[in-house]
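quick one before i forget lol
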Amino acid sequence: MKPALPAAFLVTVLLFSSCAAADPAENTGTPTEIAEAWTEKTELVAEDEDMRGYAFTEFANVTITGIDISSLNETELAILYAQARYCQAMTDADIDTLRELVAEDMIYTHMSGKRQTREEYFADIADGSLRYFTIGIADPVIQADGEKGSITYTSVLNASAYGARGTYRMKGTHDYELREGGWIAVNK
């Protein structure tokens, strides 16, 4: 049984960094083929992930590599789960779940300098301007202090951003805040 964790954060090809895959060379083939390959890898990494109620294997389009999940404390595990849940919502273009996971005042800044509100960004996902096929989280480092937390990792997104399909590799940190029992993506 997974806990109801309304937490994670937004990630985007053009906005701040996101989830990570193991190797960009592996991001070839159709989105379905990529998702199947990533699911197999996720199952290998996630053997003990369900032990404390977090079913990471339910995220078909998300892979987590480079971390021993069994070594995480409860708070670190909750933050990682929130991130994976957010990444899956992005690949599903599930705007309702994304709204649940991200603070209303979130602002995204594209690499070009363009800024978007949460709702502007979500609109681009909803209309297909931003389409995510697979997302991974590589070598995550999770920190938590009371009701604040962060996750730093390298991300590789297999996505189509405003018509340009490709694999985008980025490194970044995402900030979280514990609100009403769940980890929510917030501005730093």
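fyi The chain has one domain: 24-186.
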